[in-house]
Design a protein that fits this description.
This protein is an alpha/beta fold and 238 residues long. It has one domain. It is 51% helix and 16% strand. It has ten helices and seven strands. It has a seven-stranded mixed beta sheet, sandwiched between helices. α2 links the parallel β1 and β2. α5 crosses α6 and α5 crosses α10. The radius of gyration is 17 Å and the shape is globular.
Length: 238
C-alpha cells in the first residue's frame, strides 16, 4: 500500500487493463495498445502483473504502470467483491482500481469482455471491425470524460450512503442509470443498434450492494463505488 505512489500515478493514468493473456490474440492486442497509444499511461494491478509478469514486464514504465492500493481497505473490498460476484481476483481488482484511479477499465479479449458484460448496466454497441485507429483514440478520450464527469457525484453520494447505512441506495442506483442513459449519447459517432460491445457501463454501487450490506467498510471504499466505463478491446488487434 502506498498513498504517495498512488498520488504520483493517478493524474496521468488513462486506463486500467484487464485480460486473460493465455487467450489467443490478447498479447497481440497489448502490443497494439503499446504501439498505438504510447502516450497513454495504462495501469496494471498487482495480481494481474504477478500472474503474467513474463509477458507484461517489457511494457512496464511505458505504457504500463504498476498500480497499488492507496489504502489496504480497498484491497479487502476487492477480495470481498470477487467472492460475492464469483469473479477472478484479477477481474475484481481491475474494477476497484479503475474506480479508485478515476480511469476507464480496458478489457482485452473475449473472455474478459464476457465477464464484465454480465455486470453492465448499459452498453454501447458498434461494428468494431470498421473502427480505425483515429476512432479508437477519439473514443478512448471520450471514455476519460465519462469517468471524470461521473466521479465526484458518485463518490459524494457513496460517502453519504455509507454514513446513512445505505438508506435510499436503490434510488441512487436508479438515478445513476438515468445518468448513464444520457452519457451514452457521447458515443453517437460509433453507436449501433446491433454489434459488438465497445463500451460497458458498470455501476460499482449497484454490483456491490450485497457486500456493503453484509460487511462493514469505512468511507474510504467510496472511491471504489463510481461508474466505471469498460472499453472492450478484442483479441488480435493490429
Amino acid at each position: 500500500m502506498s498513498f504517495a505512489r498512488y498520488a504520483a500515478i493517478v493524474k496521468n493514468l488513462r486506463g486500467v487493463i484487464a485480460a486473460h493473456l493465455d487467450e489467443d490474440g490478447c498479447e497481440e492486442s497489448i502490443k497494439w495498445l503499446a504501439a498505438r497509444f504510447r502516450y497513454r499511461d495504462l495501469g496494471v494491478g498487482p495480481t494481474l502483473l504477478a500472474r503474467y509478469r513474463s509477458k507484461l514486464e517489457r511494457y512496464l514504465g511505458k505504457p504500463l504502470r504498476q498500480l497499488v492500493y492507496p489504502v489496504s481497505e480497498l484491497e479487502r473490498f476487492a477480495n470481498e467483491l470477487g467472492r460475492a460476484l464469483g469473479l477472478e481476483e484479477t477481474a475484481a481488482e481491475a474494477l476497484v482500481l479503475a474506480s479508485t484511479y478515476i480511469s476507464p477499465l480496458i478489457a482485452i479479449g473475449r473472455q474478459t469482455i464476457a465477464v464484465y458484460e454480465k455486470l453492465a448496466a448499459a452498453k454501447v454497441l458498434t461494428d468494431l471491425s470498421s473502427m480505425k485507429v483515429q476512432d479508437w483514440k477519439l473514443h478512448l478520450r471520450i471514455a476519460d470524460y465519462t469517468v471524470l464527469d461521473f466521479y465526484e457525484q458518485c463518490v459524494t453520494e457513496s460517502i453519504e450512503l455509507l454514513r446513512s447505512g445505505l438508506v435510499n441506495a436503490e434510488k441512487i442506483v436508479e438515478e445513476r442509470r438515468s445518468r448513464i442513459s444520457s452519457d451514452i449519447k457521447r458515443y453517437w459517432r460509433i453507436s449501433r443498434s446491433q454489434g459488438e460491445p465497445f463500451l460497458l457501463y458498470i455501476d460499482m454501487l449497484r454490483v456491490s450492494l450485497s457486500i456493503l450490506r453484509e460487511k462493514e467498510f469505512s468511507e474510504n471504499v467510496a472511491a471504489a463505488l463510481a461508474i466505471v466505463p469498460v472499453v472492450c478491446v478484442p483479441p488480435g488487434m493490429r
